[in-house]
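TA notes, week 10

Several of you asked for a full example with nothing omitted. So below is the full record: C-alpha cells for the whole chain, then the designed sequence directly under it. When grading your own attempts, check the secondary structure regions first.
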C-alpha cells in the first residue's frame, strides 16, 4: 500500500511558477513509476508528466513540454513537478499517482495509487 500526499498548489498569475510536491509512504518509492495528472472543471483527467521506475524514462504531455519538469528525491520519497511559465489553461486539480509498471505512463488506468489532489489556479 502506498499513500500519496500532494502539496504546493495555489493561486499564481500567468507567467508565474509553482512547485508541486508529492510525498509517498513506504520504503519502495523508487520501484514505482510516478506520474502527475490534472483535471480541469468539466474536463476529463489528462496526463501531465511521469517518471519511470528507478528514475528512468521521463515523459511529458505536449502541452507542458518545455515548461514543466518532473523530478524525484528517493531519500525523501518525494516527486516534484516544477511548473514554469504558467498559463490560465493550466488551471486544474493536480493529482500525483504511483504505478508498479513503467509501461504506458501516460495512461491513468495503469496507476495503482492516487493522491487527493491539489488545486492550481492561474489568473490571467
Amino acid at each position: 500500500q502506498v499513500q500519496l500526499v500532494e502539496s504546493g498548489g495555489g493561486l499564481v498569475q500567468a507567467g508565474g511558477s509553482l512547485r508541486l510536491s508529492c510525498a509517498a509512504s513506504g520504503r519502495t518509492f523508487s520501484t514505482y513509476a510516478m506520474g502527475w495528472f490534472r483535471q480541469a472543471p468539466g474536463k476529463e483527467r489528462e496526463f501531465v508528466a511521469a517518471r519511470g521506475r528507478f528514475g528512468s524514462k521521463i515523459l511529458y504531455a505536449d502541452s507542458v513540454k518545455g515548461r514543466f519538469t518532473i523530478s524525484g528525491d528517493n531519500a525523501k520519497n518525494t516527486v516534484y513537478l516544477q511548473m514554469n511559465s504558467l498559463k490560465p489553461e493550466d488551471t486544474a486539480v493536480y493529482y500525483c499517482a504511483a504505478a508498479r509498471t513503467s509501461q504506458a505512463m501516460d495512461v491513468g488506468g495503469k496507476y495503482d495509487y492516487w493522491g487527493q489532489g491539489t488545486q492550481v489556479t492561474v489568473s490571467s
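Residues 92 and 103 are 25 Å apart (CA to CA). Use that as a sanity check on your answer.
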